Amino acid sequence: MQSITKRHLTDHEIRMVLHRAFGPDTEPLRTTAFTEGCFAAVYGIDLADGRELVLKVSPSPQLRLLRYEVDLANTEIEFYRFATAAGLPVPAVRFADADGGYLLIDRLRGRSLEAVKSDLSAGQLERLRHDLGAICARLATVTGPAFGYPRRDGHTRSGSWRTSFLAFVDDILTDAVEYHRELPMPAERIAELISRHAAVLDEVSTPSLVHFDLWDGNIFVLPDGDGVTVEGIIDGERAFYGDPIAELVSLALFTDPERVPGLLAGFLGEQRQLTAGERLRWRLYTVYLDLIMVTEGAVRGHVTEEQDQFRTFVLGHLAEHLAEL
Fold it and tell me: How far is CA 189 from the centre of its chain?
């Protein structure tokens, strides 16, 4: 997908990254630009020694992005480092340069869940969703020193989840206003609705690592017996330290997590459902993600009819959840 945020590299520039990572004798046999996604440029690279890698390139630091889209390479590097230490299924990082915006990881061999889920039975999907819930429960055991995004300038970082999350919301609403993005109601009214329920955020006392972008396209699976197993999760650039319940927003994208067989059993434990407070928090995080999705197109620089239709859908979804608040 075309986007002005994709910083495309020449063959020479790719070779220079490889030389920095592995030495001057490293040569690519084949380089393939992946066209999926609408934010970072991504390349598949086959090396002469048989290694198969993925090079992810962050947008130019001179480009104006959304307020939360700062230092994302550093965020993704931190996510992979701590997820690996916790034994989670993520690709191995072979080279990372947060300042340059380069990340080299092993290429996964499977396919995205988005690509294969229509071929899976209800039982196979339930088992997989249960496993994903358990993976995210394990991710939630990774904790940080403070709430907020792990960007190095410290913006949104605090000792209170309420303070950090309200800063998230203020940033995205400011972006929406500055870029003249259509919203279901005035930004001030949205902020008021969220603030009205902000006390429920104080139920969260531990800053847990949250991926927050685990839709099916970022989950890779491999065949396993009569079903599939999770090979790896990718794209941790939007991770933050906060409430693990926020993970359910993308794990059950555009639907109620209680209606996704297997998910909550893996995430919360057998027989447990969301508490009233957790459901309210999930709704607040759903509003936040919807606000991101209706605003981010303003800095991508390329709008297709399909993207416009998707934004219209998200606006409707956002309006429904705001009405519940």
Answer: 27
Position 88, amino acid: L
- Lookup: tokens for 36: 């999926």
Residue 253: how many CB atoms within 10 A of its CB? 17
- Amino acid, single-letter form, for residue 67: R
The Cα angle at residue 280 between residues 192 and 297, in degrees rounded to 5: 65
Cross-strand partners of 43: 33, 55
**Sequence-distant (≥ 6) Cβ neighbours of residue 172 within 8 angstroms:** 66, 67, 68, 288, 291, 292, 295
Name, in order, each residue with C-beta under 8 angstroms of 114's C-beta and a sequence gap of 6 or more: 215, 216, 217, 219
Single out the residue of 306, 287, 31, 267 nearest to residue 183, CA to CA.
287
3-state SS class at 158: strand
pLDDT digits (tens, 9 = 90+) for 186-205: 999 999 999 999 999 999 99
Nearest to 77 by CA among 45, 101, 60: 101
Task: Provide the percentage of residues in the chain whose pLDDT is more than 70.
Answer: 99
Q: How many CB atoms lie within 10 A of CB 94?
A: 15
Structure tokens at 172: 């995205």
Would the pTM count as exceeding 0.90? Answer: yes
Quick check: 26 and 32 in contact, CB under 8 A? no
* Rounded Cα gap, residues 285 and 155, in angstroms: 19
